Amino acid sequence: MNMDSLKKTYSILIDKLPEAVTVSGSLIPIKTDFRIWIRFENLMRDKNIPAADKIKYARDLCYIKPPAEILAGVRALIRFYTRGDVEGETADSAAGTNKPARFDFGCDADYIFAAFYSQYKIDLTGVTMHWWKFRALLGSLGGDNLFNKIIGWRTAAITADMPDRQREFLRDMKEYYALADGRSEDEKIDGFTAELLEGL
């Protein structure tokens, strides 16, 4: 299935996960394993790499054979990364995730690995998994694992009516597990999209 043919009625239960994107009317195969797209995010957030170099690295990383059209090719990668539909809305923004960052693939790698193994019995070091499938499973993690606890501490509001010990505990946890990049998912995407387009 071509990702750009998806509508808001797309369902992971009944529709085939996309293996290509449309660039200037042509289907261009891409690499879909979650590791590629975690590396893509890490690349986009690396402040030491110039935007023009990020474009080259991203194309080489994500496409099997990069298309000639650079601008359309970059936009297609961003749409796939955000799991966006043809109108640009993403699965995350539709769910209202424009909130402070809850996790980071670098800082939280061990916690994410352990949570997947505990809940799904999936060893992420030994599987190939489509990015969209990985994100669906990641977003549905529940239970009493440390990853969920950390997210809870990061996002918990500290209120005046809390007992002193609870407020102190939450402050300590927020400080201990604080993320260097506290932007929301939408803010990060907007930031590296603007940077990439400036580098063209």
Describe this structure in words.
- This protein has 200 residues and is mainly α.
- The chain folds into 2 domains: 107 residues, no CATH class; 68 residues, no CATH class.
- Helix content is 49%, strand content 4%.
- The protein has 9 helices and 2 strands, in the order ββααααααααα.
- The chain has a two-stranded antiparallel sheet.
- A hairpin with a 2-residue loop joins strand 1 and strand 2.
- Helix 1 packs antiparallel against helix 2 and helix 1 crosses helix 6.
- The chain is globular and about 60 Å long.
- It starts with 19 loop residues before the first strand and ends with a helix.
- About 6% of the residues have low confidence.
Describe the structure using short key phrases.
200 residues; mainly alpha; 2 domains; 2 strands; 49% helix
In short:
The protein has 2 domains: 3-95 and 185-198, no CATH class; 109-176, no CATH class. It has 9 helices and 2 strands, in the order ββααααααααα.
